[in-house]
Amino acid sequence: MSSIPVDPHSGSRMTDNTENHPGAREPLVLNMDRFSQVTQQVCQVAEARRTPMAWYICFALSLGCLGVLGFCVLYLILTGVGVWGLNNPVMWAFDITNFVFWVGIGHAGTLISAILFLFRQKWRTGINRFAEAMTIFAVICAGLFPGIHVGRVWVVYWLFPLPNQMEMWPQFRSPLLWDVFAVGTYFTVSLLFWFTGMVPDLATLRDRAKGKIQQIAYGAFSLGWRGSNRHWHRYERAYLLLAALSTPLVLSVHSVVSFDFATSQLPGWHTTIFPPYFVAGAIFSGFAMVVTLAVPAREMFGLKNLITIRHLDNMNKIILVTGCMVGYAYSMEFFIAWYSGALYEKFAFLNRAFGQYWWAYFLMVGCNVITPQLFWFKAIRTSIPIMFVLSLLVNVGMWFERFVIIVSSLANDFLPSSWDVFVPTWVDIGTLLGSFGLFMVLFLLFCRFIPMIAIAEIKAIMPQADPHFDEHGSDDHEAQEETKGEVTS
Amino acid sequence: MSHVNVTADLSERNVELGSIGGVARNACLAVGIIGLAVAFLLPVFGLADVTWDIFWRSWLQTWIFVLEISLGAFFFVIIQHLTRAGWSVAVRRPAEVIASNLNWLWIGFLPIVGLLVFGKASHLFPWSDMEALAAHAPEEAHLVAGKEAYLNTPFFLIRSAIYFVVWGVLATYFWRASIRQGTETGDRTTLKMQKISAPAAILFGLTISFAAFDWIMSLSPAWFSTMFGVYFFAGTATCGFSAIIITCILLQRNGRMVNLITNEHYQDMGKLLFGIGMVFWAYIGFSQYMLIWYANIPEETGWFLARQMGDWGWFSVWLLFGHFCIPFVFLISKHPKRNWRTLVFAALWMLFFGWFDVYWLVMPTIPHDLSTFATYDAAAEAYAHVGTGLLNPVNWLLLAGMLGIFTWFTIGRLRSHPLICTSDPWIDDSLHFENM
User: Fold this and answer.
1) What sign does the dihedral A406-A407-A408-A413 (CA atoms) show?
2) Closest Cα of chain A to B185: distance in Å?
3) Residues A444-453: tens digit of each pLDDT
4) What is the C-alpha separation between B407 and A429, in angstroms, rounded?
5) Do A22 and B426 touch (CB under 8 A)?
6) What ranges do the domains of chain B cover?
7) Inter-chain CB proximity B428 and A342 less than 8 Å
8) pTM for the whole thing?
9) 20 to 30 A from A487, CA-CA: which of A241, A367, B115, B281?
10) How far is A270 from chain B (nearest CA, A)?
């Protein structure tokens, strides 16, 4: 099993854990000997009496953006969808672009918590909690857009197949309805997964809470957790089952989102590679967002030894892999558009690259295919400022990918006489900006009040949790026993 | 669930195949030669209604199946290095050996090259003889004429050569490097394999996609699907992973690798087969079918129509149930993955359906007069009596022949070196590996 490499010169533990030594797993928790240190470090963020100034500044900005969202949505509802730049034939633009973008962001959480869990990737424990939180908030943002774009928002519940006296049902053969089910299921399972994983940590906060309000709030949500053997056993079973249930969801949600487009006959929308291509793109953008958020969060709350450079390095590798997959899909689409011999198909792709939205297309290819290639170099994968900028670029690129797919295909369809240009209005832009506000407000509240890192899970991957762990040849068994006993405390 | 491996027996007796398998190996060679020879006699004497057209189509199909086995094993090897996997050291050598066959499998493609060069391949690849195509299917010829820059014999052969070089060089490299790794100290080779695995994965993805377009999709040159390369990839995982499992179990039944490969490894290989070779395959297959069915664009539906008319309809249903529904239920629990008897049954089943899938891809041809029917029912009635030719002996003789030679090579290479790289840095991880 892995042991902590010791720097031969100083004798102290190395803080660079990005080196690869075949045969040894590098430590994922740095400069920590005891489990209680982990508890202390993660809990102190939620328990701190003083909130960091940076948090207040971010929160105020986010709240402002949320206000813009509220205003734009209210204006939209009171006036009608004409306030957006939509026209005939571009009947979908920013609304659905934002929807797909946010659903995509929501993919990293489930991938980390479910698929990386099944693949036994221990490094996921450092980032899973807030990636899952991010998932939930992103899906909330996503869910907003189909809701408000329907025109008559007061009958939005017609999206759901509710029995009614009019005997009126949604069109079950429409992928738009499948979307309601897919996103709904995804949100429910992600929320359950997130909450289930959090119960032991909430109990820790409850036990440590000093104030009455905290005791009651954390106490209610920790569901009477006592950390008994039986509790842990049930918890592990539930976690495994939820992971297994979430795994197909990682694929299904964005596949169904892609069906919204691919089941149509519109060139540029109808192509068979869409389902896996959308899933790869979603994971790509999701991980970019995790990096975007993790970099400042670990700085602001002093969590650099729990979210280490190696975690970021690994995430950047996943961004590289999924970026290559997205590049593969772009090239296959282009190649097959030519190979198909279909006139409209060829036109749709040439128009994408050289038509009126050429700049959006090159922004998309530049950010999604070229940018991640820089992550081939370790120096870039481990450089905080560069990765932060690149992750932002990927987010921009992925937003534009959806914009390009949706708008360029609609704007120039089969009949040149019906072609038009989509120009966003201030309401379009305000709603997009506002959705970031909604996301950030939720995320900042989460950072402040909920354990941002899975305390119990991270303890389990420390070398001290290994039954064969030998604390550097020390024969102080009592100390070891004591350390182990803290896993459940 | 603790099978902790306490007695890791790394003695020669346990990790080298030695002289055993000699009889089996010779038998494989005999089956291979006899199978191919008898299959060859069928069209020569016109037995069992086998024409040369049928023979070469069946040849191509069987050869692609055997190639898929090696490609799947090759993918397995790359991905282990790419992810710095520890658990898989105990089962990696058999995978490397199966993949190493990529350095001679190109020989099986030479007859097809010959057909193309001598202009006799028009029944197989209609684009290779545009005049003949224009004569009996002018509409299709018009479409295919636009693809001539890609679908022409010289470029096709150049591309095929590139695939063979890439696969042959890389698969041989990973096999040889792993053997070298077993004789040297230090991490140099391990790190180098890790480094090469990343570009290797990219080359693998690109080459198998275009190989699938060239060798399978262009059999119906008017048809196209952006997903096709991914579908082929899923098929390689099915065949490759099944073959690795079967090889490991055979080694253990012959008293080798005892206590080195454990139920823990089998469970993990079973998971990979289940996840990628079965569920992912079904996901890709479903997405491809559903999108084409739903949009119902005539340019695309013909390919599936050819696979649902006449006997092909039931064949397709069998593919769905045999490749997905039945094994899904069978393998979803961990218990059948941890028992060698049930796992080898599942792997043989999946290997067979991997072959079945290639048959479904290669053998049907889209009727040229499909567009002349007013309704689907009229077309289906006209082609109600199309057979699949599944039971024709030529398929089974060629399968026995090619698999025989493939196994002969594989056993030979397994015998030449230890069955496990005992000095791999991750060997301890692998030998003490537990799922839970």
Assistant:
1) positive
2) 12
3) 999 888 888 8
4) 63
5) yes
6) 2-16+51-391+418-434
7) no
8) 0.92
9) A241
10) 8
